[in-house]
Amino acid sequence: MPSSAFSTMSGTHILFLFFLKLFVTGWTQGATVSAPYLNVGDGTVLEFNFPEHSQGVLLVACHYPGSDAWLSVSSLEPTVVVIENVSASWGGSFTVRFQSGLAGLAPLQLRLLEQNRLIEERADFRIRVDTSDLEPTIQMSLGHFSENPILFALLPLIFLNKCAFGCKVEVDALQSLVHQPHPIMLGILGQFVVMPLYGYLMSLAFSLPKALALGLVISCSSPGGGGGYLYSLLLGGDVTVAISMTLLSTVAATGLMPLSSSFYGWLLGAHETLHVPFLKIFITLLFIAVPISIGMLVKCKLPRVSRLLLLLIKPFSFTLIVGGLFMAYHMGAFILTSVRPPIILAGVTVPIFGLLLGYLLAWCLGLPGPQRRTVSIEVGVQNSLLALAVLQLSFQRAQADFASQAPFIVALSSTSEMLLLVLGNLAYNKLCSTGT
Predict the structure, then answer these.
(1) Helical H segments across 190-277, by residue range
(2) Helix, strand or coil for residue 118?
(3) Which residue positions does the secretion signal occupy (predicted)?
(4) How far is CA 169 from the centre of its chain?
(5) What residues contact residue 21 under an 8 Å CB cut-off, 6+ apart?
(6) What is the architecture of the domain spanning 36-130?
(7) pLDDT, tens digit, for every residue of 284-298?
(8) For domain 138-430, which CATH number applies: 1.20.1530.20, 3.30.420.40, 1.10.490.10, 1.10.1240.10?
(9) Which CA distances in Å does 138 have to 183, 309, 329, 381, 390?
């Protein structure tokens, strides 16, 4: 009798364990199906729009726990999209760079491998390449700005002003930067690591919508452009270091700006592929490097002309600041009609935080006063036009205009705050000279 009971209980126990194993196995498989290792964003968007003949970046999130996993990505329509390379990114994710070609639909094949063993394969993500109507969109939205006669009046001043800055470049100072590149490294660290993180934290603090939050992060990721060395001159910074930082940070932006923007876009759940305006970055470099090189040549060959340009550099610079503020307002007036207080508060703090951050980093390294001011300005002043180009080329029109509120607010805040600093510095110097 006891042995019969024991056999009955054993059979029941074995049957229970069998069904439990089936349940656990089925639940595990169901969890695997419902929660794949590979996703773009949160996985809810499977199709991404992109213009023809452009370069883009896609960030693929990988939740596989293995440390040796690698992602292979191929385009099933190479005439529409060509995958250029795949590189590892933060948190086990992967950055996919691609080139769009003709209009059409390109399914992507994603294969997660670990030591040549297939972990997961997905072919449901796709990129739709359309005949780009983005250029007309930008012209329609910003046409009144590009046709503004004030812009054409300022262009000769901008060119002459950059030539004058070339006359202030010291060759010895350039050579010393090769051996002591601390200001340049601090500028890159602040501009492409800390500032995007600050933009992301501000977007969380103010609960900004995804598109607007990504616009703020991209604005914080943009290099300084030509405004940095202009403010360095007016505020007693090191002009040679400022020009060098501007040029090198613009070069670094070709790789670091899309990387940080894609990473924070993934964190924010923004599913758009980001178009990197490499041509605009290259034109920015030329527009800085060519007139400055001409100014350096004028300094060597035509010293009288150089002295004349140096006499005009400060009034030209002040005129450009006021003109830039006026143009930034008119350029973004149609976008800023529906702006809300949270993005205004977030955008106003960006230049202030960047200035304080740059000065603190330079102070910690014991850099001299003029270089401290220069690093502070280079980190605190962003090239909002570059951020605007990324947003206009990466979003649909309505969403692009909405996201573009961030770079316009940052641009207006930066120009206004720097103008106040310049005026305050002039008043302080005047009072000091009067007191003496």
Answers:
(1) 195-205, 210-221, 227-234, 239-268
(2) strand
(3) 1-30
(4) 28
(5) none
(6) Sandwich (2.60)
(7) 777 777 888 888 888
(8) 1.20.1530.20
(9) 36, 36, 17, 24, 12
CA 227 to chain centroid, in Å, comes to 17
CA distances (Å), origin 358, targets 41, 188, 235, 246: 32, 10, 15, 14
Distance CA 383, CA 67 (A): 38
**Residue of 412 and 172 predicted with greater confidence:** 412
More confident residue, 79 or 370: 370
**pLDDT tens digits for range 149-195:** 555 666 677 777 778 777 877 777 667 777 778 888 888 898 889 99
Joined tokens for residue 153: 């009046």
Across 76-157, the runs of DSSP E, i.e. the strands, are 81-88, 94-100, 104-114, 117-122, 126-130
Please tell me whether residue 43 adopts helix, strand or coil conformation.
Answer: coil
Q: For residue range 337-373, what is the model confidence (pLDDT) as tens digits?
A: 677 888 889 989 999 999 999 999 999 988 888 889 9
Residue type at 26 in one-letter notation: G
Q: What pLDDT is stored for residue 275 in this prediction?
A: 65
Domain boundaries, the chain: 36-130, 138-430
Helix (H) or strand (E) holding 369: helix 369-380
State the number of CA atoms in the 13 A half-sphere of 241 facing the CB.
28
Would you give the DSSP letter of residue 334?
T
* pTM of the predicted structure, to 2 decimals: 0.62
Q: Six-digit token pair at 286?
A: 């030329």
Cα–Cα distance, 33 to 18 (Å, whole number): 23
- Which residues pair with residue 108 across a beta bridge? 75
3-state secondary structure of 94: strand
Closest to 273 (Cα-Cα) out of 34, 106, 121, 120: 106
Any residues with CB less than 8 A from the CB of 284 and at least 6 apart, and which? 225, 226, 250, 383, 386
Residue 75 parent element (H or E): strand 69-75
Chain segment 297-316, per-residue pLDDT in tens:
888 888 888 888 888 777 87
- C-alpha 284/C-alpha 263 separation (Å) is 25
Q: Which residue has the tokens 């934290």?
A: 201
- Summarised one tens digit per residue, pLDDT across range 35-75 is 678 888 666 778 888 887 778 888 888 888 877 888 999 99
As given in the structure block, the two tokens for residue 242 are 């400022």
CA separation, residue 89 to residues 95, 288, 355 (Å): 6, 32, 29
Residue 419 C-beta-side C-alpha neighbours within 13 Å: 15
The mean pLDDT value for 129-137 works out to 53
